[in-house]
Each structure stands twice: as C-alpha cells, then as structure tokens.
Amino acid sequence: MTTPETLYRTPSHPHRWVGLLALAQAAVAVLWWHLGWAWGLFALLLSHALFVVPVFLPRARLYAPVLARLPGRMPHVWLTIDDGPSDDTPAILDLLDAYDAKATFFVVGARAEQRPELVREMVRRG
C-alpha cells in the first residue's frame, strides 16, 4: 500500500494562532489593569485554557490537521516505541520482522550514543 503524501504534509499555517495568542494576552493585560487582579487572573487562566485544552482532545484541529484514519479498508495500527534503544530492542525488531510490521522508534539521545549499532539496526530494518 502506498501512503498519500498528504498524510505527511506540514500544516500550511502552523503559526496562525500566534496573533490570536498575542491578542488574548493583550486583553488579559487590559482587564488586569482596568478591573483588578481578580478579573485579570481569571482572564489569564481562561485564555491559557483555550490554547491548552485542544492539546488533550484527540480530534481537535486547532494547531494542525488531525489524521483519524488511513485511506483504504485494511485495518492498520501505528506502533510507537519510546525510550530506546535498550536490551529489548533486538527482540522487538525480530518480532516486527516476524509479522512484517513497522514501528516508529523514539530514541533517547544518551542511549543512542551508547548503542549506535542498535540505532543503525533500527534504521536498516525500516
């Protein structure tokens, strides 16, 4: 199966919310100055919540497009493996090979420096 290039595209306006954030903070400053610290603090918390809450909502598209399903009808799973490489990495790679599966490895820089051969093996095996 080929994956459409659009799945990996960068959002066309990744920084469009910077202006809105600046405007929200200006409103906070005005409220704080004119209505006092209680209203200013409330406005500050509200403005930050509006920008933080979407991070925790799986389908929120505030900052970037969200890919909820792959094209086609075949079931797919995206595997991510964190904090490697470790002693378990070769076994994980063998298991992935046995099922003709791929995964994304997020490595820790210090561990990668200590085990460059495992990092090369992860890259070699795709």
Which word captures the global form? elongated
- By secondary-structure content and strand pairing, the structural class works out as mainly alpha
Mean pLDDT over all positions = 82
- Compute the number of helices: 5
Number of domains: 2
Strand content: 5-15%
Report how far the terminal alpha carbons are from each other: 15 Å
Uncertain runs: none
Major β-sheet annotation: 2 strands, parallel
The helix fraction, in percent, is 40-55%
Number of strands: 2
What is the rounded Rg?
A: 22 Å
Adjacency order of strands in the biggest sheet:
1-2
Please give a structural write-up:
The chain crosses the membrane at residues 39-57. Residues 75-126 form the NodB homology domain. This protein is mainly alpha-helical and 126 residues long. It folds into two domains: 5-56; 80-124, no CATH class. It is 48% helix and 7% strand. The chain contains five helices and two strands; from the N terminus they run H-H-E-H-E-H-H. It has helices spanning 17-35, 37-52, 89-98, 109-114, 116-124, and strands spanning 80-84, 104-107. Strands 1-2 form a two-stranded parallel sheet. Helix 1 runs antiparallel to helix 2. The longest helix is centred in the N-terminal third of the chain and has 19 residues, at 17-35. The radius of gyration is 22 Å and the shape is elongated. The chain starts with 16 loop residues before the first helix and ends with a helix.
